[in-house]
Amino acid sequence: MFHRLIIGAMSGTSADGVDAAAVRVHGTGLRMTADLIGHTHRPYPPGLRSEIFGLRSTGRCELHALAQMGRDITLLYAEAVREAMSAGGLRPLEIAGVAAHGQTLFHAPPSTIQWFDPSLLAWETGCAVVSDFRRADCAAGGQGAPLVPFADFLLFSHPRNHRVLLNIGGIANITSLRAGGSIDELIAFDTGPGNCISDWLCRTHDPAGPGFDAGGERAARGKPSLELAQAVCRNPYFSRPPPKSTDGPEMIRIFNDEARRFPHLGLGDLLRTSCVITAQSIRVAMADLLHLRETEIIASGGGCENKTLMEILASDAGGMPVMTTDALDIPSAAKEAIAFALLGAATLDRHPSNVPSVTGARRPVILGSITPAPPQEK
User: What is the pTM of this model?
Assistant: First the structure.
């Protein structure tokens, strides 16, 4: 079967770093399959991560700092891609392309910014680069998100089992795959916050700390405010039917506007409340918007490392089994990078990979722009 090697590279709204996955992609179109060769993660330096969040929260930045940020992000992408190639024993000439998402700085459809320099990445890696995946869908009237449902359909569709793919990054999103259904029948959307509120609380209350609640340990010691959680979840976004997408700064704003009325809550209480909000918004999406009562929930993303969140989510799932993609031989930490490898393959094949029923686009479109590999020295 026809195959090619592609590196998928992804940095999510949590801005914790770059995941790169070397993937052997077999077939074309909706018959593609993927074998993971290797995966690596390169964390953002604390200063760069702080700059990203500063820009995302304020919307203000000097132009020279914005340009330097793009360069710094790109060079970290290049390190992750080279490391993934090295781990798989691969050379640049063997790679059909690097599918790189870039770092989301702003997302309010139809406007969206995923920031990095594809020409610099091509130069640093010696590979063609596929990038800028969202804007073609936005141009066609879509949300430009979520994009991963295309890969969810390829990787996780099942002829007999209804499955919900749940990704918990900075934002949480779900893909509902009907048993034996076609790609046009899937439903996917952003449910609301994933880790973004928890990470923001950690950055705000402990600026010198890691910027996240490792393992959910601080949340585990807190007592949730159900009143605050319910106030946040009454925001119209959560009950709005799909297609829809959101971004971390907007979810943080909604939370902070309500949290001001609860000044007595300590950090642990706020962190546990943020876990309740994430789990409750996922439950509302599944029960009230998708009307699901019996299905498999297959989770991935950094939120899977938060044990407190996963315990609350399991208790809110009404008896539905909750597993991670690791149980299906796809490492949770690598899943999004694998997805972008498949999206990049579709772009190289000139195959549309948005899902109009998901994004709201007027029609299927080919996503991404291609930057050629630099000429090899003779």
Answer: 0.91
